[in-house]
Amino acid sequence: MQNQTELPPQANPDEDDQTMEIDSSSTTLDLTSFQLHNLESVELPSNLTELDLTANRLSKLDPRIANLINLRKLSFRQNLIDDAAIEPISHWDSLSGVEELVLRDNKLMKIPDASLFKKLLVFDVSFNEITSLHGMLKVSSTLKELYVSKNEVTKMEEIDHLHELQILELGSNRLRVMENLQNFINLQELWLGRNRIKVINLCGLKCIKKISLQSNRLTSMTGLEECVALEEIYLSHNGIAKMEDLSTLVNLRVLDVSSNKLTSVNGIQNLTRLEDLWLNDNQIESLENIAEAVSGSREKLTTIYLENNPCAKSPNYQAILRQVFPNIEQIDSNLFT
Fold first, then answer.
1. CATH classification (class only), 1-7+19-197
2. pLDDT digit string (tens) for 154-212?
3. Architecture of the domain made up of 217-337
4. Is 29 within 8 Å of 44 (Cβ atoms)?
5. In angstroms, what is the C-alpha Rg of the chain?
6. Which of 47, 131, 164, 248 is spaced 20 to 30 Å from 209 by Cα?
Protein backbone atom coordinates (compact mmCIF):
# COMPACT_ATOMS: atom_id res chain seq x y z
CA MET A 1 0.00 0.00 0.00
CA GLN A 2 1.29 3.45 -0.88
CA ASN A 3 1.92 5.89 1.94
CA GLN A 4 0.30 9.31 1.70
CA THR A 5 2.47 12.07 3.04
CA GLU A 6 0.94 14.93 4.99
CA LEU A 7 3.00 17.94 5.86
CA PRO A 8 3.80 18.44 9.53
CA PRO A 9 1.38 20.90 11.16
CA GLN A 10 4.21 23.21 12.22
CA ALA A 11 5.29 23.74 8.60
CA ASN A 12 4.62 27.28 7.44
CA PRO A 13 4.34 27.53 3.65
CA ASP A 14 4.81 31.29 3.72
CA GLU A 15 8.31 31.08 5.15
CA ASP A 16 10.55 30.85 2.09
CA ASP A 17 13.64 29.95 4.12
CA GLN A 18 12.01 26.95 5.77
CA THR A 19 12.06 23.64 3.91
CA MET A 20 9.15 21.32 4.53
CA GLU A 21 10.50 17.91 5.45
CA ILE A 22 8.93 15.09 3.51
CA ASP A 23 9.18 11.39 4.17
CA SER A 24 11.45 10.32 1.32
CA SER A 25 10.07 6.78 1.39
CA SER A 26 6.54 7.94 0.62
CA THR A 27 5.27 7.77 -2.96
CA THR A 28 2.28 10.11 -2.55
CA LEU A 29 2.54 13.80 -1.68
CA ASP A 30 -0.65 15.71 -0.90
CA LEU A 31 -0.21 19.49 -0.63
CA THR A 32 -3.92 20.30 -0.87
CA SER A 33 -5.02 23.68 0.54
CA PHE A 34 -1.64 24.92 1.70
CA GLN A 35 -2.08 28.15 -0.30
CA LEU A 36 1.43 27.86 -1.67
CA HIS A 37 2.58 30.48 -4.17
CA ASN A 38 5.48 28.24 -5.19
CA LEU A 39 7.11 24.97 -4.14
CA GLU A 40 10.47 26.39 -3.11
CA SER A 41 9.99 25.31 0.50
CA VAL A 42 8.89 21.79 -0.44
CA GLU A 43 11.05 18.74 -1.01
CA LEU A 44 9.95 16.59 -3.93
CA PRO A 45 11.16 13.00 -3.43
CA SER A 46 12.28 11.44 -6.69
CA ASN A 47 10.18 8.31 -6.11
CA LEU A 48 6.80 10.12 -6.10
CA THR A 49 4.03 8.46 -8.07
CA GLU A 50 1.30 10.94 -7.04
CA LEU A 51 1.56 14.69 -6.53
CA ASP A 52 -1.56 16.61 -5.52
CA LEU A 53 -1.28 20.41 -5.55
CA THR A 54 -5.00 21.15 -5.30
CA ALA A 55 -6.13 24.53 -3.91
CA ASN A 56 -2.89 26.48 -3.87
CA ARG A 57 -1.85 29.76 -5.47
CA LEU A 58 0.56 28.41 -8.08
CA SER A 59 0.94 30.46 -11.25
CA LYS A 60 3.88 28.54 -12.70
CA LEU A 61 5.30 25.02 -12.68
CA ASP A 62 8.26 24.05 -10.54
CA PRO A 63 10.91 22.65 -12.95
CA ARG A 64 11.81 19.96 -10.39
CA ILE A 65 8.54 18.21 -11.26
CA ALA A 66 10.19 17.30 -14.57
CA ASN A 67 12.53 14.96 -12.68
CA LEU A 68 9.75 12.83 -11.17
CA ILE A 69 10.14 9.91 -13.56
CA ASN A 70 7.77 7.64 -11.60
CA LEU A 71 4.90 10.12 -11.52
CA ARG A 72 1.52 8.66 -12.51
CA LYS A 73 -0.96 11.17 -11.05
CA LEU A 74 -0.47 14.93 -11.18
CA SER A 75 -3.08 17.45 -10.04
CA PHE A 76 -2.90 21.24 -10.33
CA ARG A 77 -6.60 21.63 -9.54
CA GLN A 78 -7.72 25.06 -8.34
CA ASN A 79 -4.62 27.15 -8.96
CA LEU A 80 -3.74 30.15 -11.13
CA ILE A 81 -2.12 28.38 -14.06
CA ASP A 82 -2.61 29.89 -17.53
CA ASP A 83 -1.65 28.69 -21.01
CA ALA A 84 1.89 30.03 -20.82
CA ALA A 85 2.48 28.51 -17.40
CA ILE A 86 1.46 24.99 -18.43
CA GLU A 87 3.41 25.00 -21.71
CA PRO A 88 6.73 23.63 -20.31
CA ILE A 89 5.09 20.35 -19.25
CA SER A 90 4.78 19.30 -22.90
CA HIS A 91 8.60 19.10 -23.08
CA TRP A 92 9.23 17.18 -19.86
CA ASP A 93 9.81 13.78 -21.44
CA SER A 94 10.42 12.07 -18.11
CA LEU A 95 6.72 12.55 -17.27
CA SER A 96 5.55 10.49 -20.24
CA GLY A 97 4.21 7.81 -17.86
CA VAL A 98 1.63 10.13 -16.25
CA GLU A 99 -1.82 8.51 -16.39
CA GLU A 100 -3.91 11.19 -14.67
CA LEU A 101 -3.49 14.91 -15.38
CA VAL A 102 -5.84 17.33 -13.60
CA LEU A 103 -5.85 21.03 -14.55
CA ARG A 104 -9.38 21.73 -13.35
CA ASP A 105 -10.26 25.24 -12.16
CA ASN A 106 -7.36 27.31 -13.50
CA LYS A 107 -7.02 30.04 -16.12
CA LEU A 108 -6.57 28.04 -19.30
CA MET A 109 -7.89 29.46 -22.57
CA LYS A 110 -7.09 26.42 -24.72
CA ILE A 111 -6.49 22.67 -24.51
CA PRO A 112 -2.86 22.23 -23.43
CA ASP A 113 -0.49 20.06 -25.44
CA ALA A 114 -0.79 16.61 -23.85
CA SER A 115 0.84 14.63 -26.67
CA LEU A 116 3.70 13.64 -24.35
CA PHE A 117 1.47 11.44 -22.17
CA LYS A 118 1.20 8.22 -24.14
CA LYS A 119 -0.54 6.32 -21.33
CA LEU A 120 -2.99 9.01 -20.24
CA LEU A 121 -6.22 7.64 -18.75
CA VAL A 122 -7.78 10.72 -17.08
CA PHE A 123 -7.62 14.29 -18.42
CA ASP A 124 -9.51 17.05 -16.58
CA VAL A 125 -9.59 20.67 -17.82
CA SER A 126 -13.01 21.60 -16.43
CA PHE A 127 -13.75 25.05 -14.97
CA ASN A 128 -11.42 27.02 -17.22
CA GLU A 129 -12.06 29.44 -20.10
CA ILE A 130 -11.47 27.05 -23.00
CA THR A 131 -13.38 27.99 -26.15
CA SER A 132 -12.53 25.05 -28.40
CA LEU A 133 -11.52 21.38 -28.29
CA HIS A 134 -8.71 22.08 -30.76
CA GLY A 135 -5.70 20.21 -29.43
CA MET A 136 -7.60 17.12 -28.36
CA LEU A 137 -6.30 15.30 -31.45
CA LYS A 138 -2.91 15.18 -29.72
CA VAL A 139 -4.33 13.47 -26.63
CA SER A 140 -3.55 9.75 -26.45
CA SER A 141 -6.20 7.30 -27.63
CA THR A 142 -5.68 5.45 -24.33
CA LEU A 143 -7.84 8.07 -22.58
CA LYS A 144 -10.76 6.68 -20.56
CA GLU A 145 -12.10 9.80 -18.81
CA LEU A 146 -12.33 13.30 -20.29
CA TYR A 147 -13.68 16.26 -18.30
CA VAL A 148 -14.16 19.62 -20.03
CA SER A 149 -17.21 20.94 -18.15
CA LYS A 150 -17.80 24.63 -17.36
CA ASN A 151 -15.91 26.12 -20.28
CA GLU A 152 -16.98 27.93 -23.46
CA VAL A 153 -16.75 25.04 -25.96
CA THR A 154 -19.12 25.32 -28.95
CA LYS A 155 -18.42 22.12 -30.90
CA MET A 156 -17.74 18.42 -30.22
CA GLU A 157 -14.63 17.89 -32.33
CA GLU A 158 -11.19 16.29 -32.38
CA ILE A 159 -12.33 13.56 -29.98
CA ASP A 160 -13.51 10.73 -32.24
CA HIS A 161 -10.13 8.95 -31.99
CA LEU A 162 -10.72 8.31 -28.28
CA HIS A 163 -12.06 4.77 -28.75
CA GLU A 164 -11.37 3.76 -25.13
CA LEU A 165 -13.34 6.64 -23.61
CA GLN A 166 -15.71 5.57 -20.83
CA ILE A 167 -16.71 8.95 -19.35
CA LEU A 168 -17.22 12.16 -21.34
CA GLU A 169 -18.16 15.31 -19.42
CA LEU A 170 -18.96 18.40 -21.52
CA GLY A 171 -21.62 19.96 -19.32
CA SER A 172 -21.99 23.74 -18.96
CA ASN A 173 -20.60 24.72 -22.34
CA ARG A 174 -22.17 26.20 -25.48
CA LEU A 175 -22.83 23.05 -27.47
CA ARG A 176 -25.77 23.03 -29.86
CA VAL A 177 -25.32 19.67 -31.58
CA MET A 178 -24.46 16.15 -30.40
CA GLU A 179 -21.93 14.77 -32.89
CA ASN A 180 -18.79 12.67 -33.42
CA LEU A 181 -19.83 10.03 -30.88
CA GLN A 182 -20.03 7.04 -33.21
CA ASN A 183 -16.57 5.68 -32.33
CA PHE A 184 -17.14 5.66 -28.56
CA ILE A 185 -17.99 1.98 -28.38
CA ASN A 186 -16.87 1.81 -24.73
CA LEU A 187 -18.60 4.97 -23.51
CA GLN A 188 -20.48 4.41 -20.24
CA GLU A 189 -21.36 7.95 -19.15
CA LEU A 190 -22.18 11.06 -21.19
CA TRP A 191 -22.74 14.34 -19.36
CA LEU A 192 -24.03 17.22 -21.52
CA GLY A 193 -26.18 19.21 -19.10
CA ARG A 194 -26.44 22.99 -19.36
CA ASN A 195 -25.83 23.37 -23.06
CA ARG A 196 -28.03 24.46 -25.99
CA ILE A 197 -28.83 21.06 -27.49
CA LYS A 198 -32.21 20.72 -29.24
CA VAL A 199 -32.09 17.14 -30.55
CA ILE A 200 -30.79 13.90 -29.01
CA ASN A 201 -28.31 12.22 -31.36
CA LEU A 202 -26.28 9.38 -29.87
CA CYS A 203 -24.93 8.33 -33.28
CA GLY A 204 -26.14 4.74 -32.88
CA LEU A 205 -24.29 4.02 -29.64
CA LYS A 206 -25.81 1.22 -27.60
CA CYS A 207 -23.37 0.92 -24.69
CA ILE A 208 -24.11 4.09 -22.68
CA LYS A 209 -25.40 3.52 -19.14
CA LYS A 210 -25.78 7.11 -17.92
CA ILE A 211 -26.74 10.20 -19.86
CA SER A 212 -27.45 13.72 -18.68
CA LEU A 213 -29.05 16.33 -20.93
CA GLN A 214 -30.48 18.51 -18.18
CA SER A 215 -31.06 22.20 -18.87
CA ASN A 216 -30.90 22.07 -22.65
CA ARG A 217 -33.49 22.92 -25.31
CA LEU A 218 -35.01 19.50 -25.91
CA THR A 219 -38.66 19.16 -26.88
CA SER A 220 -38.57 15.39 -27.47
CA MET A 221 -37.10 12.22 -25.96
CA THR A 222 -36.62 10.64 -29.38
CA GLY A 223 -33.06 9.43 -29.90
CA LEU A 224 -32.66 7.29 -26.80
CA GLU A 225 -34.53 4.20 -27.96
CA GLU A 226 -31.50 2.27 -29.30
CA CYS A 227 -29.42 2.79 -26.15
CA VAL A 228 -30.73 -0.36 -24.51
CA ALA A 229 -27.98 -0.46 -21.85
CA LEU A 230 -29.15 2.83 -20.32
CA GLU A 231 -29.61 2.68 -16.55
CA GLU A 232 -29.89 6.38 -15.71
CA ILE A 233 -31.40 9.24 -17.75
CA TYR A 234 -31.46 12.88 -16.63
CA LEU A 235 -33.61 15.20 -18.79
CA SER A 236 -34.84 17.80 -16.31
CA HIS A 237 -35.33 21.46 -17.21
CA ASN A 238 -36.17 21.06 -20.89
CA GLY A 239 -39.33 21.53 -22.94
CA ILE A 240 -40.40 17.89 -23.30
CA ALA A 241 -44.18 17.51 -23.62
CA LYS A 242 -44.50 13.75 -24.08
CA MET A 243 -42.92 10.59 -22.66
CA GLU A 244 -41.97 8.51 -25.69
CA ASP A 245 -39.48 6.01 -27.11
CA LEU A 246 -38.61 4.61 -23.68
CA SER A 247 -40.18 1.15 -23.89
CA THR A 248 -36.98 -0.49 -25.18
CA LEU A 249 -34.88 0.74 -22.25
CA VAL A 250 -35.55 -2.26 -20.02
CA ASN A 251 -32.42 -1.73 -17.91
CA LEU A 252 -33.47 1.75 -16.78
CA ARG A 253 -33.29 2.34 -13.02
CA VAL A 254 -33.44 6.16 -12.82
CA LEU A 255 -35.58 8.43 -15.00
CA ASP A 256 -35.58 12.16 -14.34
CA VAL A 257 -37.92 14.24 -16.51
CA SER A 258 -38.73 16.87 -13.89
CA SER A 259 -39.31 20.51 -14.85
CA ASN A 260 -40.65 19.81 -18.33
CA LYS A 261 -44.08 20.15 -19.97
CA LEU A 262 -45.50 16.67 -19.42
CA THR A 263 -49.26 16.34 -19.03
CA SER A 264 -49.38 12.58 -18.47
CA VAL A 265 -47.28 9.52 -17.63
CA ASN A 266 -46.99 6.85 -20.32
CA GLY A 267 -44.65 4.68 -22.35
CA ILE A 268 -42.84 3.15 -19.38
CA GLN A 269 -44.93 0.05 -18.66
CA ASN A 270 -42.07 -2.20 -19.82
CA LEU A 271 -39.50 -0.72 -17.47
CA THR A 272 -39.44 -3.44 -14.83
CA ARG A 273 -36.24 -2.25 -13.14
CA LEU A 274 -37.24 1.37 -12.56
CA GLU A 275 -36.44 2.49 -9.00
CA ASP A 276 -36.39 6.31 -9.18
CA LEU A 277 -38.95 8.33 -11.16
CA TRP A 278 -38.74 12.12 -11.11
CA LEU A 279 -41.82 13.85 -12.55
CA ASN A 280 -42.07 16.93 -10.36
CA ASP A 281 -42.69 20.41 -11.79
CA ASN A 282 -44.69 19.30 -14.82
CA GLN A 283 -48.35 19.66 -15.80
CA ILE A 284 -49.64 16.20 -14.93
CA GLU A 285 -53.34 16.59 -14.15
CA SER A 286 -54.37 13.25 -12.67
CA LEU A 287 -53.14 10.17 -10.82
CA GLU A 288 -55.93 8.15 -12.42
CA ASN A 289 -53.73 6.18 -14.82
CA ILE A 290 -50.49 6.17 -12.80
CA ALA A 291 -50.84 2.52 -11.73
CA GLU A 292 -51.18 1.33 -15.32
CA ALA A 293 -48.49 3.65 -16.61
CA VAL A 294 -45.88 2.33 -14.18
CA SER A 295 -47.27 -1.20 -13.90
CA GLY A 296 -43.98 -2.89 -14.85
CA SER A 297 -42.13 -1.40 -11.90
CA ARG A 298 -44.86 -1.18 -9.25
CA GLU A 299 -42.96 -3.53 -6.95
CA LYS A 300 -39.53 -2.13 -7.74
CA LEU A 301 -40.14 1.63 -7.50
CA THR A 302 -38.80 3.13 -4.27
CA THR A 303 -38.72 6.88 -5.07
CA ILE A 304 -41.18 9.07 -6.93
CA TYR A 305 -41.36 12.84 -7.22
CA LEU A 306 -44.63 14.39 -8.38
CA GLU A 307 -44.78 17.64 -6.40
CA ASN A 308 -45.68 20.86 -8.20
CA ASN A 309 -48.03 19.07 -10.58
CA PRO A 310 -51.80 19.68 -10.52
CA CYS A 311 -52.31 16.06 -9.41
CA ALA A 312 -50.26 16.67 -6.27
CA LYS A 313 -52.89 19.06 -4.91
CA SER A 314 -55.20 16.18 -4.08
CA PRO A 315 -55.55 15.81 -0.28
CA ASN A 316 -55.00 12.03 -0.43
CA TYR A 317 -52.25 12.27 -3.05
CA GLN A 318 -49.55 10.49 -1.05
CA ALA A 319 -51.92 7.84 0.24
CA ILE A 320 -52.87 6.92 -3.33
CA LEU A 321 -49.22 6.61 -4.35
CA ARG A 322 -48.38 4.44 -1.34
CA GLN A 323 -51.23 2.16 -2.30
CA VAL A 324 -50.06 1.92 -5.91
CA PHE A 325 -46.40 1.32 -5.03
CA PRO A 326 -46.18 -1.13 -2.10
CA ASN A 327 -42.40 -0.73 -1.61
CA ILE A 328 -42.18 3.02 -1.95
CA GLU A 329 -39.64 4.63 0.38
CA GLN A 330 -39.85 8.26 -0.70
CA ILE A 331 -42.55 10.50 -2.15
CA ASP A 332 -41.19 13.93 -2.95
CA SER A 333 -39.18 14.98 0.11
CA ASN A 334 -41.05 12.64 2.46
CA LEU A 335 -39.24 9.49 3.57
CA PHE A 336 -41.01 6.40 4.83
CA THR A 337 -39.42 3.72 6.95
1. alpha beta
2. 999 999 999 999 999 999 999 999 999 999 999 999 999 999 999 999 988 889 999 99
3. Alpha-Beta Horseshoe (3.80)
4. yes
5. 24
6. 131
